[in-house]
Amino acid sequence: MKKYLFAYAVLATALLFFTCRHSVKGLEIKGNFTYMFNTTRYTNRQVNTEYSQYPGEINTLTSGKMEDKLYEKSMTHTYYQANLYGTFERTFARDHNFKAMVGFNWETKFLKDVAATGYNLLSETLNDLNLVGQGADGEKRMEVGGGQNEYALMGFFGRLNYDYKGKYLVEASGRYDGTSRFKRGQRWGFFPSFSLGWRVSEEAFFDGIRDQFNNLKLRFSYGQLGNQNVGYYNYIRKISIGSQNYLFGGDKPTTATISAPVASDLSWERSIHKNLGVDMSFLNNRLAFSADFYIRDTKDMLTAGIALPATYGADSPKMNSADLRTKGYELSLNWRDEFQLLRRPFSYSVTLTFNDYVSNITKFDNPDRSFAKKYYEGMRWGEIWGYRIDGLFASDEEARNYPVDQTTVNEIINASAGAEKGLRAGDLKFRDLDDNNVISIGKNTVDDPGDREIIGNSQPRYHYGATLALQWAGIDFSIFFQGIGRQDWYPAANALAFWGPYARPYATYLPKNFHTQIWSEENPNSYFPRPRGYTALQGTNRELTAVNDRYLQNIGYCRLKNLTVGYTLPRQWTRKALIESLRIYFTGENLFTWSGIRSDYIDPEMAATNGNLRLYPWQRTYMFGVDVTF
Q1: Using CA atoms, how far apart are residues 479 and 463, in angstroms rounded to an integer?
Q2: 151, 179 contact by CB (below 8 A)
Q3: Which of 599, 542, 547 is nearest to 427 (CA)?
């Protein structure tokens, strides 16, 4: 690392000296160096806790979260980055404009962690590892651990721009990057790109309509990007140190376990992006329209590798084994104008945006198209496979006489013999799609999925936004709406905010109208089935964790993302107080949300980010402020 820093310093000094001694018109050389040092300390203290289950009887809990111990961890991260690049710009024969740039980039990061745990401290109020006391066996118990990682990146890059009279535009660029995350021979990758542009409205044949059709520009671009974020040195088999679970000679001996086999040719993942675009403006540039249509191919995705026989005896290693194609478009429409209102200029603008995309796996080694593998060729990214539901059983008799065996999706937890066995009124009625009178997953393949089919997709569709802005007589107003037309989400197991007592019967976070949504003889048309705890807790063989279309949610939404209202006092007032301008304003964020999700307490963006809703909720904020310029 030091030799690279020294080489960089020498090179930068030499180039800067040359630039100062020999000034070259249009040439500019810049360099920078970044150093960051970050340290974090973490402390966790647990103590024994007294509790009383019966009057007059006090017990002490000394295990689990109440074990007497102190845990401390120190994390130190050191980061270096160096950049050196030069640009050269020149115009030839008045109409030919050139600009070139070449550069060098280098960075490295070192991470070091040290941790220690001490047990049976001599004080519950003082926290220090020197206070570790003796346990029941008379021995002091202390555990230490740590870890460290380091990576380095180096790259060379360049870009060349050319335009003729501002009408014909060409840009070509490339990067040659190397990373320490791959083995020698696989570390370097070249990633080129180029773009072409034609200002059609600058041509002579456009003269007759340029007053109304002000601008027309056609664009095409092609580019590659590389991804090397695959963890630290996954091309190396690692040895983990642990301890045996069985006693040998009165002790648990230390063990060393080697990891599963790895792929020796792990290398860069490539993203190839092709884009065709058009920009137009009309009516003295008051109306503007922009459209982009693109195809993005992700080649050599770093994911689970080729299909292997069960006799292999280990997981398939991560490899450059999959390809993904995304097709999409982005549209933007803007109108802006100004006119006189009560002898004062009134200006306003309206902006509408819309975009959509679909992704499909185009290559993956899964000849059986098994769901046990993550992907299969032809798979649409985000597809949700699940069961179809024909409502709830209206009576115990209907449930008993249902000819389809759905035991696999009706596991009963902690049921006494016979008390909860079998189907009952209020249970879900699963549809037998393959007509074999048994609800199952079949061979768990695309060709034999049992009684499942594609019921939705977790990827967002139809992104849109709308912005309105106004200014008049010192008053400014803007409002921004943003949303998604469609996105399917099935609540994960243990998503208490949705399932409530169906996940954990002791849950106390319940909507006030939750009782009206639970099945009973008096409420046969309820949304949820008959109340049974743990049916939405874990596993895939329980009534509510078996993904189905009845509880599949559309978390598409429309949100009032931002509202701002301000007033700027007239200058003839503020200048008397030596103030150039004074603006009073109000801003609100996330003020209203409209969504198809069947809950008033779940934010759709929170659901899209985390299936079990273990996130801090999106906040609604109000802010009043004053901007003063002297």
Answers
A1: 17
A2: yes
A3: 542
**Which candidate, 377, 264, 368, 367, places its Cα nearest to that of 322?**
377
Token output for 530:
């008959």
Alpha helices in 551-603 (DSSP H): 571-574
The token pair at 508 is 């106390």
Alpha-carbon distance 409 to 118, whole Å?
A: 46
- Give the SS3 label for residue 54: strand
Cβ contacts of residue 229 below 8 Å, gap of 6+? 181
468-511: per-residue pLDDT in tens? 999 999 999 999 999 999 999 999 988 988 999 999 888 887 88
Q: Spell out the residues 6+ positions from residue 309 whose beta carbon is closer than 8 angstroms to its own.
A: none
Structure tokens at 505: 């019967």
Q: What is the pLDDT of residues 433-468, one digit of tens each?
A: 999 999 999 999 999 999 999 999 999 999 999 999
Contact 359, 290 (CB under 8 A): no
Please state the separation of Cα 267 from the chain's center in Å: 23
Residue 209 has φ and ψ, to the nearest 5°, of -120, 5
The full length of the chain comes to 630
The Cβ of residue 442 has, within 10 Å, a number of other Cβ atoms equal to 16
How far apart CA 502 and CA 530 sit, in angstroms, is 9
| 172 bridge partner residues | 160, 194
Q: Which three-class secondary structure state does DSSP give residue 93?
A: coil
Residue 177, CA atoms < 13 Å, CB-side half-sphere: 22
